[in-house]
Structure formats: C-alpha cells, structure tokens
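Practice problem: predict the structure.
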Amino acid sequence: MSAIGVPAGASGPGSAEAPLTARAQRRADRRWYRQPALVAGMTILGVIVIMALAAPLITSYNPITQNLSESLLPPSAHHLLGTDQLGRDTFTRLLYGLRLDLRIAFIAVLLPFVLGTVLGSLAGYFGGWMDTTIMRLVDIVVAFPFYVLIIALVFVLGPGERSIYLAITLVGWVAYARIIRGEILVAKRQDYVTAARSGGLSNARIMRRHLLPNVISQAYIYAMSDIVQDILAIVTLGYLGLGIPPPTADLGSMINDGQNFLSTHWQLTTIPGLAVVVVGLGLSLTGDGLADLLRPGQ
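Answer:
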C-alpha cells in the first residue's frame, strides 16, 4: 500500500503504538531503582541510619560511662575500635555520635526549608516591595561565609541543640528562598496559573495547590546537599567545643579528643572523620540521583 503514503513494512496501529512504547520506555528508565547514584546513596544512608538507630542493640556499652582502668586500649574483640583516654568504647561512641548528629542535621534542615520556601514564594509571586525586602535580607546573610556566621551565632547563643537549630535556620533559609523565588518567577507566567487566576482562585490557593507542587522539587534536591553542609557545621561546632556539651557522644568532639593521640591511636580521630565522609558521600549520591530522577524532559 505504498501508493497511499504508508511506508513499506509499517502499519497504522504499529506507528501509533511507537510513541506510546517510547514514552513507556522513558517512564521505565526514570524509575528510582534504575538510577545508580540514587540506589547507591540510599543504600549507604540506609546502612548508616539503621546502625545508628540500632546502637543499643549492636553494642552493650554506655557511650558516656568512664573506665579509667581500660583507657586507650587497642582494637580487640571486646572493643572493636579500642577505647578513648577515659576508657569509653570508641565504637559505641561512634554509633551514638552518628545518631545524634544525623538527628540534629535532618531536623535542622526542615526549619530553613519551610521558612525559605514561604519567603521565596511570597517574593516570587507578589514581587514589588515584598520581593525587594526579602531579597535584601538574603543579600545581607549571603554577604557572610556560612560557617563563620554559624560559629558566631552559636558562640553568642551558647552551646546546645537549640542554639544549633536557631543558628542554622537564621542562615540556611536564604538558599531555599532564592531557589523557590527563581522557580516561581518562571512558573507564574505559565498558562495554568493564568487559568487559575481567571477562575477566581485566591493567591494562597494558587501558590499552595498549583505553584509549589511544580517548583518544590529543586528545593528537595538542594536539601540533600544542605544536610551535608549542616553535618559539617555540627561537626565543626563540636570540634571547637561549641556543639553538644560533653560527655554526650558527638563526632566533632571525638575528633577533637583523639587528635592528641593521633600517632599512637589513630582510630580515635580517623574513624569519626571517615564516618563524616561516608555520610556526606551517601547524601551527595542521593541528591544526584534525585536530580536525575526529577529532571524534566527525560
């Protein structure tokens, strides 16, 4: 039937099914378990989180109980990573330190995420004086290095979890505000927003039901790298003595305490440092996988 313009070897139903097959293949390729970076990152994070949560089941030692008669013991079957200068089991303190730092980091990222999303949405959608005011605040915060500002705020507020949450929120919201504002500036010009306005929907409903679901994915992706930044800030504060007060197990304080014995008991400092690196790797891979999974047009 080449006379009527149908290519040889092609049929009507087959050519109609080809685009559907291609779209189905693209959807299959975008499934989360087909993203190597996402699977690797989630596996690393899953193992670390499970070990941290199951710390009371994995080890029978108390992370803060001192036993000076067993100080600075080398790794053995009883103490997998040896003991510190106060006789505390290093492996136990590592698990509980991961548990604490991960909990603080994941909670700390929620507060700036919410605040930055709200302020970024208002700035991008309404514009005018509201946009100018919010973005000037952003410029003021961005003018200072992140870690320097965090350290200064915690130094003023005093050590402890509450100070860490407050300092990270006051500094970290600006990144989310800039991301959401930029996305909304583009999205609010789309036809579906114009149609929603023509339908008489309120500004709050348009932002909540139509804009945010379409722009929030970039903030989710950034949150993965933001958790890495928060963990590094928490470890830095602990190393400087501005984090969680002793004797609570914390990776930063463990690194600080073990540096005096680096030449003879390297594991006291090196293992907590490696734990921070592995957590950062897992979060970075997860963020890269989410970026590939949520990237439009693929």
